[in-house]
């Protein structure tokens, strides 16, 4: 294992242990996850989930940074996260990895994928020449992330992002326990 993959392995194992999870029992699959995380971290500067397409835009990818926002609800409902990197004890012991449907909202995927698609738009081959399409103002606006300040009413955890997490990373309160803080934030710089 390379030193970078070894660091990723230690980070992922520590995270799994702190939440009472296990890592997938299939060694080859686990190695592929570590390599995917290393590739994404090198490519984007942050560890995008190895089973999802990142954009390189941190604001659009924030919910899929591993461990993603959807891991805890997936493990609670299916026994494993979407990519099956994190599993519960029963799945680990049985070694039967379940199919886990995508929980990421379609509008978030569309916004993220539209960004990468529109950056690389190519005209469809036809018999008549056509001009390359450009991204419209509506499409550009569609990729804008409107961040808000959220706090957990149970433990006070505060986060600045588009949506609150599905589960509070501190106290495990559900998304419904988050409330928006109405404040104006100005960044100088």
Walk me through what this model shows.
With 189 residues, this protein is mainly alpha-helical. The chain folds into two domains: 3-94, Ferredoxin thioredoxin reductase catalytic beta subunit (Ferredoxin Thioredoxin Reductase), CATH 3.90.460; 146-189, Rubrerythrin, domain 2 (Single Sheet), CATH 2.20.28. It has helices at residues 3-19, 27-44, 58-61, 71-78, 89-94, 106-119, 137-142, and strands at 22-23, 86-87, 148-152, 158-161, 178-181. The strands form two sheets. It has a three-stranded antiparallel beta sheet with strand order 4-3-5, with no helix packed on it. Strand 3 (148-152) and strand 4 (158-161) form a beta hairpin. Helix 1 (3-19) crosses helix 2 (27-44). The protein starts with a helix and ends in an 8-residue tail after the last strand.
Overall spatial form = globular
Radius of gyration: 19 Å
The CATH homologous superfamily of the largest domain is termed Ferredoxin thioredoxin reductase catalytic beta subunit
Q: What is the ordering of alpha helices and beta strands?
A: HEHHHEHHHEEE
How many domains? The number is: 2
Helix content: 25-40%
Main pleated-sheet profile: 3 strands, antiparallel
CATH architecture of the largest domain: Alpha-Beta Complex
Class from helix and strand fractions:
mainly alpha
Strand order of the largest sheet: 4-3-5
Low-pLDDT residue intervals, each spanning 5 or more residues = 116-141
Proportion of beta-strand residues: 5-15%
**What average pLDDT do the residues reach?**
84
SS element count, helices: 7
For the record, give the distance between the C-alpha atoms at the N and C termini, rounded to a whole number: 41 Å
Total strands: the figure is: 5
According to CATH, what is the class of the largest domain? Alpha Beta
What is the CATH topology classification name of the largest domain? Ferredoxin Thioredoxin Reductase
């Amino acid at each position: 294992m390379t030193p970078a993959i070894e660091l990723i392995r230690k980070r992922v194992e520590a995270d799994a242990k702190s939440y009472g999870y296990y890592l997938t029992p299939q060694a080859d699959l686990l190695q592929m996850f570590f390599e995917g995380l290393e590739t994404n971290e090198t490519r984007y500067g942050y560890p995008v989930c190895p089973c999802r397409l990142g954009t390189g835009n941190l604001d659009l990818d924030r919910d899929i940074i591993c461990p993603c926002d959807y891991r805890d609800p997936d493990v609670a409902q299916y026994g494993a996260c979407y990519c099956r990197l994190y599993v519960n004890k029963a799945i680990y012991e049985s070694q039967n990895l379940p199919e886990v449907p995508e929980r990421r909202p379609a509008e978030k995927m569309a916004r993220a994928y539209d960004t990468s698609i529109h950056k690389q738009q190519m005209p469809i081959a036809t018999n008549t020449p056509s001009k390359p399409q450009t991204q419209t103002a509506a499409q550009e606006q569609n990729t804008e992330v409107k961040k808000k300040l959220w706090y957990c009413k149970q433990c006070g955890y505060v986060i600045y992002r588009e949506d609150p997490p599905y589960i509070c990373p501190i106290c495990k309160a559900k998304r419904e326990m988050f409330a928006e803080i109405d404040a104006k934030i100005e960044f100088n710089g």
